[in-house]
Amino acid sequence: MKNWLAGNLFALSVVVAGPAIAAQTVGATWYGNELRGHRTASGEVFNPNGLTVAHRSLPFGTCLVVGNPGTGREVRVRVNDRGPFTGGNSLDLSAGAARAIGMRSTQHVTMRHC
Fold this sequence. Notes:
This protein is mainly beta and 114 residues long. Helix content is 11%, strand content 32%.
């Protein structure tokens, strides 16, 4: 038994993830061409056709699945900006993300970690 242990190396991988976000329903808005080319809070250039989202406090790079209960469609988005700063809303989707789930105006969406 001693020789078997000496000849075999074991590796242990630990995956550390950010705090889990339970699935929840939140208010959402979207923004588009008016900010094309401007820098987001993360420093990247805003692409209205990208699959990105603004959130007030989640770390930049956080992956979220956002869904439209009315259409049943979901999309994976990445947090790259801060906002929205309008009452009652937690997410500000890029136009591309809003289009992907069939969102046409301010509404409630589902949100969970990827």
